Amino acid sequence: MSVTINTKINGQPVSASAEASTSLLEFLRDTLEMKGSKLCCNTGECGACTVIYNGKPINSCVTMAADANGAEITTIEGLADGDKLHPVQQAFIDTGAVQCGYCTPGYIMSVKALLDRTTKPTAEDIEEAVSGNICRCTGYAKIVDAIHLAAQKLQLR
Amino acid sequence: MEYFEPKTVSEALSVLAKHGAEAKVIAGGTDVMVDIKFKEEPGGLVNIKKIPGLSGITENGAGLRIGALTTIREIETSALVREKLPVLWEAAHQFASLQVRDTATIGGNICRASPSGETLAPLLVLEAAGKCAFSDGEKTLPFTSFFQGPGKSSAGANGLLTEIDIPYPAAGSKGVYLKHAVRGAMDIAMVGVAVMLTPDAGKNNVQDVRIGLGAVAPTPIRAPKTEALLRGKPLTAALIKEAGALAATESSPISDQRSSAENRRWIVEALTRRGLQQTWKAATGKEIG
């Protein structure tokens, strides 16, 4: 059965239909052709599909597309301002926190949600914020560096 | 696949009366969506998130009422829960990841009836009960007899859990939830042990103790023989040792990819001992002599 979804993605109203069994991630990637959010484990364990849903980071792979109805969603595509990257994106580049890059959009959304809550995160806040994101390349140290750098940049804004 | 978005509990019950056999109730979706992708697509989905009034945490006499649609993150960030029911807070805090906690609901964690459901051992030692709506009326079902097997609960295919009522523990009680897993986050418990201990007025003896075991039987269970062994006695190192060993015999774990059954019994023993030591010290200020 098809469900009509009226939602707001990256500030833009979107109306489209999807099967009831469709995940929000499939809706973004396959229906709307927004390929920034990544499909990886598809079980809510790796965080590569993280988007911000009504201000909260969630795994879009285990969220029903139908639940996007009436919600406000921010995806990785919504962060940059034209050619100017968001401070979190720039910080990941500046610290070398990206290797293969597959986990990066999910990390950036988790970190964006963290720094929307506070620009002075504690070590515990940082650990909690990215505990649902898995990176198999970096060993995490540079990701933590990127979070500190992004926090500093956002504090100066 | 059929899809329903009932707007009231009674509308949900009529959908379930008609389609309960093949349709699944979905709330946060963190378990059901995985089933859809990797197991079998159900004949229908009954999305209950549009029913108003099923979420939120309120004080209700001498306890808390938590709506079934309340997310684990709402529980984790509730000052009331942290102050009044720290044993439940500890489970919410150790639950999966932030992303999952933002979506998963306590009602879903309960109705999933997984032996390892993170909130279940704490709810057992808190002697919480679920309010379930059925077509012939509402029933209050204590969680100590709610779980029937993996995925099976007294809510059945046609009932709807609407709220969780949790009485405050007796004055002077201390509780703890200890989870053993390989990773700190995003891991299912190999074993989870919840302990709620109440010392007597002189803080000399165990007046009451409740022990909940997760992931070591077809359902989360209490350890009644161990509790009986401890009641009315001063908590000594020898008694704690005996209690740990007895709790291990009350579990009936399986071997799976996370742990062998033998290892799980060892962990039940260790965590039971640790839980008793910690709650006794917190409740009496005394180290075990």
Short description:
The complex is a heterodimer of chains A (157) and B (289). With 157 residues, chain A is of the alpha+beta class. Chain A contains 5 helices and 5 strands.
Verbal overview:
- The complex is a heterodimer of chains A (157) and B (289).
- Helix content of chain A is 33%, strand content 17%.
- With 157 residues, chain A is of the alpha+beta class.
- Chain A has a five-stranded mixed sheet with strand order 2-1-5-3-4, with helices on both faces.
- In chain A, helix 2 (87-94) crosses helix 5 (141-155).
- Chain A is globular.
- The model of chain A has no long low-confidence stretch (mean pLDDT 97).
- With 289 residues, chain B is of the alpha+beta class.
- Chain B is built from eleven helices and 14 strands.
- In chain B, strands 4-5-10-6-7 form a five-stranded antiparallel sheet.
- In chain B, helix 9 runs antiparallel to helix 10 (237-250).
- Chain B is globular.
- Chain B starts with a strand and ends in a 5-residue tail after the last helix.
- The interface between A and B is medium-sized, with 30 and 27 residues.
